[in-house]
Amino acid sequence: MMRGTISLTSLLLCALLGACREQRPAATPAAPAASASATATAPPVSEAVPAAPELTPEQREADAAGMRERVVLMQAIFGGKFNPVHNAATMRLSVPEEPGMHVYTIEPVAHTILPNGDAALVANALRGERGPDDNRVRAEGGLLNIFILRKTNGRWALLKHHPNIARMGSWETIGRARFMQLAPGKPGLAMLHGFAMMDYAQRKLSLFDLTADPVRSLTGDGITIFFSTSGCVPEEENICSDIVAGWRFALPAAQADYNDLVLTFVGQDDGKKEARRKGQEGPVLASDITSLNGTARYAYNGKTYVLVEGKNPGPEE
User: Fold this and answer.
1) Of 38, 84, 101, 287, whose CA is between 20 and 30 Å from 115?
2) What is the model's pTM?
3) What total number of domains does the chain contain?
């Protein structure tokens, strides 16, 4: 029964992605328009598992321009230590859970221009230098770093570095970056990150205030927005699930520093139940499909975003 979930998941993703393009956070002011040096145009604040549509020539040029601009920012930060061929630089950093300083490879991921004209560069930090004998665990993700730069007399200069803010992602990446407004006057960063292997996949949403000092995760280890065990077989597994969520912001229901986060889920799970087939002895597992459609609302409580309404059907941490 659950084998049909694979095709259902594909339809759900296509339908939800289409819906996400049309959603507008009516209760939330639009993010300020990014300048020509921004990584990309201001994204919608709804996001599901990204599809891979064919890029238009304009989009390819915008991506190329963004990469060129990140080279300029990396050179402003690292000078001659930046290697444009590898698109990376090395620096010594500390990690809260580890003693001492260690060498990390810093790779640019995305950037935007903040309302005050400063640039925010999002980067991935990987332990050690890249190489065939770097002893890295390839399935692990990276460490989120944010660099704030200010332009003076036509030249960018490093203003603030927020090092190794959070560990996230997998396969040596920290995921995809999206820039938006967390509240009026508070530009934010959304990181979409997760893990996929064999028939298991999960994606989370993590939020950060780019004006905070220090920058920290506002969503703990992240809020699940996608989960799939699409290849599982009901007769072999205890449960099979497929969910995907669009996300948007809404004005806070109570006074808070940031807008509320609203998720809209589409999906189902096959929890199975014991049943007896006529003419045969012994229990067998039979499909027990349950809809997981619904919404979940998160509010900021002064420390983190917490669930205040509805339910997130994703796996609990």
Assistant:
1) 84
2) 0.77
3) 1
Average pLDDT over residues 164-183: 92
Within 10 Å of residue 38's Cβ, how many Cβ atoms?
Answer: 22
* CA angle, 282 then 287 then 292, to 5°: 145
Q: Is 182 helix (H, G, I), strand (E, B) or coil?
A: strand
In a domain, 237, yes or no: yes
Query: Would you say residue 316 lies in a domain?
Result: no
- Helix (H, G, I), strand (E, B), or coil: what is residue 72? helix
The parent domain of residue 258 ranges over: 3-49+58-310
- Is 69 domain-assigned? yes
Residue reference for tokens 């014991």: 274
Q: How far apart are CA 250 and CA 236, in angstroms?
A: 41
Q: Give tens-digit pLDDT for 89-118.
A: 999 998 767 777 888 999 999 999 999 999
The string of pLDDT tens digits covering residues 253-274 is: 889 999 999 999 999 887 766 6
Using alpha carbons, select from 158, 45, 63, 143 the residue that is nearest to residue 95.
143
Handedness of CA 208, 212, 216, 218 (dihedral sign): negative
- 203 vs 130, which has greater pLDDT? 203
245 touches 265 (CB < 8 A): yes
Q: Report the distance separating Cα 142 and Cα 125, nearest Å.
A: 6
169 touches 175 (CB < 8 A): yes
Q: Which residue has the tokens 């960063």?
A: 189
What is the residue whose two structure tokens read 């639009």? 30
Residue 86 pLDDT greater than 60, yes or no: yes
Sequence-ordered list of residues with C-beta below 8 angstroms from that of 148, at least 6 positions apart, any chain: 114, 118, 119, 120, 121, 158, 159, 160, 161, 162, 210
Alpha-carbon gap, residue 26 to 252, rounded angstroms: 13
Is 315 inside any structural domain? no
Would you state the pLDDT for residue 131?
Answer: 54
Helix (H, G, I), strand (E, B) or coil at 271: coil
